Automatic annotation (TrEMBL):
Cofactor (UniProt): a divalent metal cation
Reactions accelerated catalytically: 4-(phosphooxy)-L-threonine + NAD(+) = 3-amino-2-oxopropyl phosphate + CO2 + NADH
GO terms for MF: 4-hydroxythreonine-4-phosphate dehydrogenase activity; metal ion binding; NAD binding
Top-level taxon in the UniProt lineage: Bacteria
Cofactor info, note text: Binds 1 divalent metal cation per subunit.
Gene Ontology, cellular component aspect: cytoplasm
More info: The active site is located at the dimer interface.
Family: Belongs to the PdxA family.
Name of the molecule in the record: 4-hydroxythreonine-4-phosphate dehydrogenase
Matching HAMAP family: PdxA (MF_00536)
Gene name per UniProt: pdxA
Length: 333
């Protein structure tokens, strides 16, 4: 492998990740990336995931912990990081061993990226509950990556061809959002997004549109004062630092203009504010990108899809989009 590889982590061994990888491989969808991809996972689990496709996968081990997984006339290199009893795994029922394995794939990938041995990483979905059961003290990928990279703040960006949304707050109860917003938090988000879009997406001067928290952007304080008190001061400070950040715009109209191409990314105050319009437009092909890390990390924008495991029906669009975006980011970095 001449170029530095893109590491593709297999995700939950009882989830949809292994099957997506094999479906994309068999269909030739991974051919454009054949020289770059290295799967971090479990050879036995991957081989078993070929069952819905009526083509038996075979694994040819090599002597350094890697090998090649063959499916018909196509193959992928695999770094073997777990040896689970694939025949005993039940879709949707990951145990603690599965939780430890899915964490091991991510740990190995981030370490390889930090050492400069890999160009970036693309992650398949994990089970947060199984990781917790294995004693992994992180609620998910993002927190683990931030800790391992020594970064205090990262920004979740969900991206498709027509819309990119970046979140100031992510997974917390809606009633807690206003108290968690601050001028400093919004400004830090704007700085990370601006820097990442310049460095990793090749934009000379990213145009950032900031969503208001309240209807009608607060209507001069009639529906809330967070705009005047928190968001506007953050925007003024960002602009003084040379960031092209505008707003706050009423959320009910902003996304129409954003999807039309009037800005490069929308900064959203809370999870559903950004993800509802994003998934309306990009339900199948959205990519989850972690901004603010010293490494490139993209992910599928869907969960473990336990109900689809073993059916062969899962859609590979998000996985392929995540690989393409990681490729683009590593070229620009």
């Amino acid at each position: 492998m001449g170029m530095k590889p893109l590491i593709l982590t297999m995700g939950d061994p009882t989830g949809i990740g292994p099957e997506l990888i094999l479906k994309a491989l068999l269909a030739g969808e991974l051919d454009p990336f054949a020289d770059r991809l290295l799967v971090a996972g479990d050879a036995g689990v991957l081989a078993r995931a070929s069952a819905p496709f009526a083509v038996a996968a075979r694994f040819e081990p090599e002597d350094d912990g890697t090998g090649r997984l063959w499916l018909a006339d196509r193959s992928l290199p695999v770094r073997v990081l777990s040896r689970l009893d694939a025949g005993r795994l039940v879709p949707g029922c990951p145990d603690a061993a599965c939780g430890a394995a899915m964490a091991a794939y991510v740990e190995w990938a981030v370490a390889a990226c930090r050492r400069g041995e890999a160009a970036g990483m693309v992650t398949c979905p994990i089970s947060k509950a199984a990781m917790q059961a294995a004693g992994i003290p992180f609620p998910g990928h993002t927190e683990l990556l931030a800790e391992r990279c020594g970064v205090e703040k990262v920004v979740m960006m969900l991206a498709g061809a027509r819309l990119k949304v970046c979140l100031v707050t992510t997974h917390l109860a809606y009633r807690e959002v206003p108290a968690r917003l601050s001028r400093e938090e919004i400004l830090a988000t704007l700085r990370i997004v601006d820097r990442s879009l310049r460095r990793q997406f090749g934009l000379e001067r990213p145009r950032l549109a900031v969503a208001a928290l309240n209807p009608h952007a607060g209507e001069d304080g009639l529906f809330g004062d967070e705009e005047k008190r928190i968001i506007v001061p953050a925007l003024e400070e960002a602009r003084a630092a040379g960031i092209d950040a505008r707003g706050p715009f009423p959320p009910d109209t902003l996304f129409y203009f954003a999807a039309r191409g009037d800005c490069d990314a929308v900064i959203c105050m809370y999870h559903d504010q950004g993800l509802i319009p994003l998934k309306l437009l990009h339900f199948e092909d959205a990519v989850n990108v972690t901004l603010g890390l010293p490494i490139v990390r993209t992910s599928v924008d869907h969960g473990t899809a336990y109900d689809l495991v073993g059916t062969g029906k899962a859609n590979t669009a998000s996985l392929l989009a995540a690989i393409r975006m990681a490729e683009q980011m590593t070229r620009n970095s």
